[in-house]
Amino acid sequence: MNGEIHDLCVIALCTNKALSEQTPFAMERSPYIAERRFVFCNGFGCAESPEEWYKISRKRRMNTIRLYLPVSVKDRSLLGFINTSSGFLALVQDGGTVLRMDPEWTWLKHKNAWRVVYRESEMNHSLEQLPVWTDHTKELKTVLTQIKELALAIREPFFANCFQDAKDLLEGKIPAGKKPQFQDLPAPYGNILNAVSRADVFGAMGSWNDSPPYEARSIGRKQDYDRLSDELLKQIRINLMYAVNTCYSQV
């Protein structure tokens, strides 16, 4: 899974778990993130850790959090670059006020890791305007089957295996030698998150964005490649939002 989106998912899941179960906020440290900083709006200062951010956000009457991702992009080839996911978190406060939290990633060469700054801003939305997420796993399974067939047709067995693994994970089957990251989440949410993590092949060099489009063109299937790639990205993000936002739902 894209690192930016992964961090948004983990923050949202850990937050809603703590809120739903009335337990302390707990979030594992990431080996590739050296620093996280949370900048609050309206003069509330900053937090230097997810734990401090959660504590201050609760004092500011946050009662739930939601992940938002665009389900389409103008150029999939840009997804391999940093700060291109356009994902953000919506923080809902008592009374229906909604705040937006956007990430900005910077590489720290001296630490060989990332610094992430989450900046908060006000949104012109109310609690009643937040969408309702529904199960689209059937659509995800369909596109995984179709894009696997395309991967085999253009002689890309590695990606064909990725798509088959994703389909297996969606059905709760763990591929041999794999250790899914979200297996501790309740079904079906853990299955969905593991599946979309495996299916997220949109990166830079060596990714599904690299040679596959040219191979598809060489056999007259470039149109299929574009259509299925767009649909796969859409279903990955729709199912991500469904799983993350519903797993510990508060509203």
Question: How would you portray this structure in words?
Answer:
By secondary structure, the chain is an alpha+beta fold. It folds into 2 domains: 3-129, Nuclear Transport Factor 2, Chain: A (Roll), CATH 3.10.450; 137-247, no CATH class. The chain is built from 7 helices and 6 strands; from the N terminus they run αββαββββααααα. The chain has a 6-stranded mixed sheet with strand order 2-1-6-5-4-3. Strand 4 (88-93) and strand 5 form a beta hairpin. Helix 3 runs antiparallel to helix 7 (222-247) and helix 4 packs antiparallel against helix 5. It starts with a helix and ends with a helix. The relative contact order is 0.16. The mean pLDDT is 92.
Structure at a glance:
The protein is of the alpha+beta class and 251 residues long.
The number of helical elements comes to: 7
CATH topology of the largest domain: Nuclear Transport Factor 2, Chain: A
Give Rg in angstroms: 19 Å
Return the CATH class of the largest domain: Alpha Beta
Q: Could you spell the SSE succession in H and E letters?
A: HEEHEEEEHHHHH
Structural class: alpha+beta
| Major sheet characteristics | 6 strands, mixed
Helical fraction: 40-55%
Tally of distinct domains: 2
Instruction: State mean pLDDT (0 to 100 scale).
Output: 92
CATH architecture heading of the largest domain: Roll
Low-confidence stretches: none
N-to-C terminal Cα separation, in Å? Answer: 27 Å
Q: What fraction of residues sit in β-strands?
A: 15-25%
Shape: globular
Number of strands: 6
In spatial order, strands of the major sheet run: 2-1-6-5-4-3
